[in-house]
Amino acid sequence: MTGDRHAWTPGRDPVDLRRSVAAAHERFLSSGRPPEGLRTVVRDSWQRCLRVGVDPDRVSPRVDLDGAQLRARRDAHPLAPLLPLFRRLLLDNAPGGHIVALGDADGRLMWVEGDRSLRARAERMHFVEGADWREQAAGTNAPGLALALEQEVQVFASEHFGRNVQPWSCSAVPVRDPDTGAVLGVLDLTGDDAAASPQALALVQATAAAAESELRVRRLRGLAPHPAPPAPRPPAEPEPALLRVLGRRRALLEADGRTVELSRRHSEILLLLTRDPDGLSGDGLGVRLHERDASPVTVRAEMSRLRRLLGTGVLASRPYRLLAPTGTDADQVRRLLARGEHRAALRAYPGPVLPCSDAPGVIDAREELDAEIRTALVRAGDGEALADWAARPDGRGDPRILQAALHALPPASPRVPLLRAGLSRLA
Fold it and tell me: Where would I find the GAF domain in this sequence (predicted)?
């Protein structure tokens, strides 16, 4: 991340940068595809946010701690005795018009101090003490991203995933235990564009380093306890593989930290195997791949090539099945629909399942997801979500969707004339 940590460099016009990133943000939300020319750290974060269903229209993290709970968590925090140092180095030396926040290792803000009017504004997006600002709860933001990556990071204006956070910029640095290296919390400077300048990041880094040194000195003097030996960690569960099939001619398989673009036939095979975790016989796979049945010899040859491509430990035979948990982006859309997050589901749906495939099993998967989306949208009666679906090729010719959108939207909505025109064309 070394070349990626600065949001903007001296000489770059922040206004131009804000505009270009905002345009990339809109393209990404409308297509679901990674935008070009964006910092890798931001692009990857946007993709993670979309995957877990963060709402880009309004970030409003939960305030998990308040009152006695917050006081108890603060009193027990190992960085609490260092608050005077943080205030002296950051609040007294940072440029005016900024907020300083100190969060714990779980991403909850323990202390938020600084400019009173800015803090009042920040309260509207729940940037307050006790709030959960992890990336998966609040979208792309410097404190959450610094904890996710365990590195210093800046987020400038429209690089934030949530539109209501985009007026702000921030620099954040993890604060570590000087003896064990474990992350104790995160230190953040939030404010206007200057909060994402190289100088702002250097100031926050220097303050975090001073805090770590001060904590070591306090321990040597017997003023702070030494860390307890870490408990043994259970082995980490591997991340499930993900097969991306929505709106793609050829699927992408993301597994073990690498991404592989598959051939059309291999895309179909893997999708079909994700739909039948118990496995398929050669004949069963053949009839799902070709309406006149693919011969067992052809299926065996394709499976052999796929096994060589993916390596050992991925595919089993008799029956053909996947050895590791593998989900699809279609499953993610289903989960969002099940939670009632219909607009997030549409943002996570860039297009039909393998739209160029004519394999019978793939056509079934495509039509099933299409029917699930339509049914969920009509039942929910969310006018904006229905209108969004009606504007897509998938929903444009469906009078049921158009009528449901017209019924759900207020008569004064600017989308009503377009929907009526669409219905007239179908009449």
Answer: 116-214
Both 253 and 214 in one domain: the answer is no
DSSP states along 82-119: GHHHHIIIIITTSPSSEEEEEEETTSBEEEEEE-HHHH
Confidence (pTM): 0.62
* Residue range 265-287, pLDDT digits in tens: 999 999 999 999 888 888 888 88
Number of structural domains found in the chain: 3
Q: What are 175's two structure tokens? A: 């604060």
Choose among 62, 49, 111: nearest CA to 82. Answer: 111
What is the domain extent for residue 400?
A: 335-426
The CATH number of residue 70's host domain is 3.30.450.40
160, 189, 220: which is the final residue of a domain? 220
| Cβ contact 115:98 at 8 Å | yes
Picking from 349, 354, 393, 402, the residue whose alpha carbon sits closest to that of residue 372 is 349
The answer on 383 and 281 residing in a single domain is no
Are residues 129 and 189 located together in one domain of the fold? yes
Q: Where are the alpha helices (DSSP H) in 115-263?
A: 116-123, 135-138, 142-149, 198-220
Residue 54 tokens, joined: 């963060």
In a domain, 235, yes or no: no
Return the amino acid letter for 354.
L
Contact 49, 139 (CB under 8 A): yes
Show which of 311, 327, 343 is a domain's final residue: 327
Beta-carbon contacts of residue 174 (< 8 Å; ≥ 6 apart): 146, 147, 150, 151, 152, 183, 185, 186, 187, 208
Q: Give phi and psi for 190, each to the nearest 5.
A: -125, 140
Q: Are residues 48 and 130 in the same domain?
A: yes
Structure letter (DSSP) for residue 280: B
Residues 208-264: tens digit of each pLDDT = 999 999 999 999 988 888 777 666 666 656 678 899 999 999 999 998 778 889 999
pLDDT at 231: 64
Cα distance between residue 117 and residue 114, in whole Å: 9
Give CA separation, 216 vs 171, 204, 211, in Å.
24, 19, 9
Co-location of 276 and 392 in the same domain: no
Which token pair is 257? Answer: 């930290």
pLDDT confidence of residue 1: 38
Does 140 lie in the same domain as 261? no
Please write the tens of the pLDDT for every residue from 299-311: 888 888 888 888 7
